[in-house]
Amino acid sequence: MNIILFGPPGAGKGTQAAKLVEERGMVQLSTGDMLRAAISAGTELGLKAKEIIDRGDLVSDDIMVGMINDRMSQDDCKAGVILDGFPRTVAQAEALDAMFAEKNITLAHVIEIKVDENALFARIENRASETGGERSDDNADVLAKRLKVYHENTAPVLPYYEAKGHLKTVDGMKSIDDVSHEIAQILTS
Ligand code: AMP
């Protein structure tokens, strides 16, 4: 089963994806994690991506689509994936549709984790202190920019999937376990 976890930064996509990996053995494809791995490895892409991530902008659609296409071609993805952080633009969503059609696979659900954005600043601050400031984009200034980018570029992906009948919404203000219960209900529906 292929699903997309969707929501603004700090909504809990990564947390919920990790639970699905642990509990159901699903494969998580986090584009943010892939970019951070490229940064740690010091690749040319990593160097370019770091600048973009640190100012809260989006990496280009071409790069991101290529990255997902390569990863989706690997054998472990054949049983289905959780896309976490992708697609982030309508162009990426369209490219994903084309990719799925070409690979002859289907998208089961797009699960929007809906949150009160005022709570995100506290959540990101919390994540920064829990991880010892591991992510250079986890601070109030960059979060404000990431939210602006989310509204301008990423939120339009929601009506795109709504029109296709794929969109489901869960209440991301509930506890981690309650959100994961809501997601489980969608996956068994
Ligand atoms: P995340 O870990 O999902 O919050 O992603 C961290 C950062 O990586 C984002 O703020 C973007 O700069 C970049 N990024 C991750 N996924 C994408 C994507 N699908 N398209 C463009 N940029 C992305």
Question: What brief labels describe this structure?
Answer:
189 residues, alpha/beta, Rossmann fold, five-stranded parallel β-sheet, 5 strands, 12% strand, globular, binds adenosine monophosphate
Structural notes for this entry:
It is a single chain. This protein has about 190 residues and is of the alpha/beta class. The chain has a single domain (about 5-180), classed as Rossmann fold. It is built from nine helices and five strands, in the order E-H-E-H-H-H-E-H-E-H-H-H-E-H. The protein has helices at about 15-25, 30-40, 45-55, 60-70, 90-105, 120-130, 140-155, 155-165, 175-189, and strands at about 5, 25-30, 80-85, 110-115, 165-170. A five-stranded parallel sheet has the order 2-3-1-4-5, sandwiched between helices. The model has no long low-confidence stretch (mean pLDDT about 95). The site of adenosine monophosphate has 17 residues, from helix 2 and helix 3. Adenosine monophosphate binds next to helix 2 and helix 3.
Quick description:
With 189 residues, the chain is of the alpha/beta class. The protein is 57% helix and 12% strand.
Give the uncertain stretches in residue-range form: none
Instruction: Report, as a whole number of angstroms, the end-to-end distance.
Output: 12 Å
The succession of helices and strands, N to C, reads EHEHHHEHEHHHEH
Q: Helical region count?
A: 9
Largest beta sheet: what is the strand line-up? 2-3-1-4-5
Number of domains: 1
SS strand fraction: 5-15%
- The chain-level structural class is alpha/beta
- CATH architecture assignment name: 3-Layer(aba) Sandwich
User: What's the shape?
Assistant: globular
CATH topology value: Rossmann fold
Radius of gyration: 16 Å
What ligands does this structure carry?
adenosine monophosphate
